[in-house]
Amino acid sequence: MTMLQNLLKRVVLALLILLPGVTAAAGEPDGPAPASVAGTTFIDTATAQQMHADGISFVDVRPAPMYQAGRIPGAVSLPLPGGKFTLQNLAKVADSDDQVVLHCRGKDCMMSSIAAREAVKWGYSKIYYYRAGYNGWKDAGLLVELPTKEGMMQAQN
Q1: Cα–Cα distance between 105 and 111 in angstroms, integer?
Q2: pLDDT tens-digit profile of 49-59?
Q3: If we measure between CA atoms, which residue out of 49, 66, 154 comes closest to residue 105?
């Protein structure tokens, strides 16, 4: 990848992180994240909760500081910003024919849809797109992991 391509990739990722707040403020309360991603299965919070209970792998593609501030219990951090969401890293979490739930912070976040498209391109056939993400999970009152001085603890919202 050339220096210019690398710079452009970083600018696009930065805009994807910053622009959703601007878009929501401009009158799109449902958020800019797409309702579906080709080759994936859209899931709502109830389905995500059942899949979590069934032990399906959850991958959180938010930036590392967001993941550290609170997360869905057991979710693996593979941040899209910073280049940690790669085929090699995803393969450490799940095989291409395993079920995988991808999420970011919620409807105002494009990162999980981008990651889902990439996973499909890499040959993953059972990708579940959880558009509501961490915020939807937390807003539903489901268990989350939050930081404490001693480490992470599980807390009901």
Answers
A1: 9
A2: 999 999 999 99
A3: 66
3-state SS of the chain is CCHHHHHHHHHHHHHHHHHHHHHHHCCCCCCCCCCCCCCCEECCHHHHHHHHHCCCEEEECCCHHHHHHCECCCCEECCCCCCCCCHHHHHHHCCCCCCEEEECCCCCCCHHHHHHHHHHHCCCCCEEECCCHHHHHHHCCCCEEEEECCEEEEECC
Q: Both ends of the chain: CA-CA distance in Å?
A: 43
13-51 residue pLDDT tens: 444 444 444 333 333 347 889 999 999 999 999 999 999
Mean pLDDT across the chain: 85
Query: What does pTM read for this prediction?
Result: 0.80
What's the length of the chain? 157
